[in-house]
């Protein structure tokens, strides 16, 4: 377990979740304890925060189209904000959370319970370890399984145990993974889909939040390879968090023969997506991707632009996968 002292964030729930009024199920102010190994939310820069900018709008769209979905699981929950967002916006009342490290899960569970108006309303299942496997003995079934998993592998299991954040690094996989998915750093997302088959309720689906630094067709092929029917549910963009580390990491991966990967200048994506509603974004994703080809930056080009002071961003997909 980490020897570092946890820190505490105080987050106004309504602005963070973009609610029109005070939250119904969460406290007005979210008190979030973070640990060294949990990916840190970007509460001071919501355009680079996955939960606020990408996940919560997708949850709201599902709720508007389908009504409440009560059973929700987050793989790699971090500090638990994704689960809290699902409770408020999806109406989830059965929650499962997992992450790699024990202290990350313990903090997430405490964060979820602490920030509920009525803790008795929510049944919580949790475990630490490999993706969904910590929940296997409980045999849960979820209507939504959510994942926003890391891409960067570490070969040394001992290094995993001491790595700074469980969200930044993942171990190599023993499962057979199609070569195209390895090349595009999607192995962990693919394995999550394989595992999800045993945890989905009838008509359930997996929501995969994916930085679209590779062609959209690759994500749909990934879902198909795992035995799912995939759809681009929403298509948007976010400012690149940890820009220096991500750009240099992708630059090295591409030099090693993986990829290719692409980024954009943030101002260009802001201009393009200002005219795209969330509701239509999934259907328009392929056309938008084509229109943005002239604006794509290789990792080297993105790094040079970043060095010159440009804000770097990438497009983002919420892939929704239903069992065939």
Quickly list its features.
single chain, 324 residues, Rossmann fold, two-stranded antiparallel sheet, 10 strands
Overview of this protein structure:
This protein has 324 residues and is α/β, with parallel strands linked by helices. The protein has one domain: Rossmann fold. Helix content is 37%, strand content 23%. It contains 12 helices and 10 strands. Strands 3, 4, 5, 6, 7, 8, 9 and 10 form an 8-stranded mixed β-sheet that branches. A two-stranded antiparallel sheet has the order 1-2. It starts with 6 loop residues before the first strand and ends with a strand.
Short description:
It is globular and about 50 Å long. With 324 residues, it is of the alpha/beta class. It is built from twelve helices and ten strands.
Topology of helices and strands:
Elements lengths: L6 E6 H5 L11 E6 L15 H17 L4 E5 L5 H9 L4 E6 L2 H13 L8 E6 L13 E6 L9 H6 L16 H5 L3 H10 L3 E12 L4 H10 L2 E12 L3 H13 L8 E2 H8 L4 H14 L7 H9 L4 E12 L1
Parallel strand pairs: 3-4, 3-6, 4-5, 6-7
Antiparallel strand pairs: 1-2, 7-10, 8-10, 9-10
Helix pairs in contact: 2-3, 9-12
Global shape: globular
Structural class: alpha/beta
**How many distinct helices?**
12
* Name of the CATH homologous superfamily: Vaccinia Virus protein VP39
Biggest β-sheet, characterized?
8 strands, mixed
